[in-house]
Amino acid sequence: MEPETLHIVVTFAPLSAGIGMGYVGIPCAALLADVGLALGFRVTGIQRRSERSGWKIECLNSGQSPFEGDEPGLAELIHRVAVEKGTFRVTDDYSACREADVILIDVQTPVDDDHVPRYESLREVSGQVGQHLQPGTLVVIESTVAPGTTQRVVQPILERESGLKGRSPHSPGPPLRPPPRSPPTLGGR
Q1: b/e per residue 67-100 (b: at least 16 CB within 10 A)
Q2: How do residues 169-182 score in pLDDT, each as one tens digit?
Q3: Which residues, listed in sequence order, are joined to residue 46 by a DSSP beta bridge?
Q4: What per-residue confidence (pLDDT) applies to 78?
Q5: Domain with 68 in it: what CATH number?
Q6: Dist CA 178 CA 32 (whole Å)
Q7: Is residue 188 a part of any domain in this protein?
């Protein structure tokens, strides 16, 4: 009997700092993709194809790290999952979210001069994800956000764009649907 496939989509947005796509999203996606084949899932990264950061799509798909500097083991890991194992790919097409069981959102959360968080990227990505969200998909916000942001900012956007009603992380009750054949539980930081 074939094990069911668990699809994971990790969404990215460019950072306002010079390096780009982020020191959280890429290592997280690559690590998940490294164990993905053994556990029955693949990872798709989504990157906006902008002039500033669109080059990272081809860079990562060719198995190269977009980071300069010393990131021990990351370049080898990206090459292994993108080229050798084929468990990691990057696209600019948000429709990949339709196939996802788990969506990790890792986007910039800069602050203004008064240290108030600016959630433009989080809102934009949440809207894009919501347009392709399917019932039962787990959405995890890994961006640095203030308490309550998931419920007050992200959840209403996801519900409006998808037409689905979600359950906030603090609501009692069962999940929207049980995972097929109890795939591995994924935890985060």
Answers
A1: beeeeeebeebbbbbbeeeebbbbeeebebbeeb
A2: 543 333 334 344 43
A3: 11, 91
A4: 95
A5: 3.40.50.720
A6: 21
A7: no
* Cα→Cα distances 57→49, 167, 172, Å: 8, 33, 39
Q: CA–CA separation, 21 vs 9, rounded Å?
A: 15
Q: Taking the mean position of all CA atoms in its chain, how far away is CA 183?
A: 18
Stretch 60-65: mean pLDDT:
95
Lowest mean pLDDT among 14-18, 21-25, 121-125, 159-163: 14-18
| Count of the separate structural domains present in the chain | 1
How many CA atoms are closer than 13 Å to the CA of 172, on its beta-carbon side?
A: 0
167 against 111, higher pLDDT: 111
Give the separation between CA 168 and CA 10, rounded to whole angstroms: 20
pLDDT given at position 153: 92
Instruction: Provide the residue range defining the domain that includes 47.
Output: 6-162
Residue 14 lies in a domain: yes
The answer to whether position 187 is within a domain reads: no
Would you say 86 and 61 are in contact if contact means Cβ atoms under 8 Å apart? no
Judge residue 134's burial from the number of C-beta atoms within 10 Å of its C-beta, 0-12 exposed, 13-18 middle, 19 or more buried: middle
Residue 141 lies in a domain: yes
Instruction: Give me the amino acid identity at 164.
Output: L
Q: pTM (2 decimals)?
A: 0.76
pLDDT of residue 26: 87
**Alpha-carbon gap, residue 70 to 51, rounded angstroms:** 25
* Interval 144-160 mean pLDDT: 90
